[in-house]
Amino acid sequence: MIASNPKADCTVLIIAVLRQLYIDELKDLYNAETQLVKALPKMAKASSNTQLRQGFEEHLRQTSEHVSAASITASLYFSCIVSAPSFTRPSIPMHFLPVGFSSSVSKICSS
Q1: Which pTM was predicted?
Q2: Tens digits of residue pLDDT in 89-105
């Protein structure tokens, strides 16, 4: 039987947690952009000032381009993540982890 290396296991676990946090942040950013694309036309329509309306419309154009590019990039990225090797639960006690990591680690390790 091969002995477990707690330091290596902890490193793998931290990488898994950071990976999940990164994925969650990407999803949140994409969600914010898509919500903005839905809200900007309403804001432009409701504005009585021409310059403000034009600003909203220009921002909508730019944000729509971001969402479009992000969709393509996210599709490629997430398809790579799905095919990437997954991390297995290390055999180390949770008290070795930094404060605040336990809930994220539990989420990752239980999946």
Answers
A1: 0.58
A2: 444 444 444 555 555 54
